Amino acid sequence: MSVLAIARMGHPVLLQRAVEVEDVSALHIRDLLQNMRETLTESGGVGLAAPQVHVPLRLFLYSVPPARSEGEDDPPRPVQALINPILEPDGPDMMQRLEGCLSIPGFRGEVPRYRRVRYSGWDEHGARVEGVASGFCANVMQHEMDHLDGILYPMRMTDMARFGFEAEITRYGVKA
């Protein structure tokens, strides 16, 4: 297996809608997921969508590291796959979330996201999965789902004053 190159903002693969995976249990899908898992581990990220590794298919990886868990409704989760995902808001509540992206290295910005989402799709073993995600997990899933629809997080931002270099935001915070 191998670490894959990550597409960066400006590459056309990041701006197109990804296509459905026809056979969720195909060998090439399992290989892609394994390579994506290695790429995610190497990058230190928490999520990775196939278009980010130049593959326009509707699948992504997501995780919740223990330090990012937001309580019992948002438990830590190891890296998991979601193939041909469907996400829907689970209620109207939204919040501003500070996000970064492996395809936009060195930057962070605040993005409005739903607090909870319902999800369904298939896992890496070809089994049907569905559930409700809250907090950080819901955030990661929405971010990765956007990649499958050709949307980068700055496109969702409502206030560009809340976008900047990660080092500066870490040092000074995001100010109104």
Radius of gyration equals 16 Å
* Largest sheet: number of strands, sense, barrel closure: 5 strands, antiparallel
Number of strands: 8
| Secondary structure category | alpha+beta
What is the first-to-last residue Cα distance? 45 Å
Q: Unreliable stretches, pLDDT < 50, 5 or more residues?
A: none
The pLDDT mean sits at: 96
The tally of helices reads: 3
What does this structure look like?
It is a single chain. This protein is of the alpha+beta class. Helices cover 22% and strands 30% of the residues. The strands form two sheets. The protein has a five-stranded antiparallel beta sheet, sandwiched between helices. The longest helix is centred in the N-terminal third of the chain and has 17 residues, at 27-43. The model has no long low-confidence stretch (mean pLDDT 96).
Which characteristics define this entry?
176 residues; alpha+beta; five-stranded antiparallel beta sheet; three-stranded antiparallel beta sheet; 22% helix; 30% strand
SSE layout and pairing:
Elements lengths: L26 H17 L3 E3 L9 E6 L12 E13 L4 E6 L7 E8 L1 E7 L5 E7 H14 L14 E3 H7 L4
Antiparallel strand pairs: 1-2, 2-3, 3-6, 4-5, 5-8, 6-7
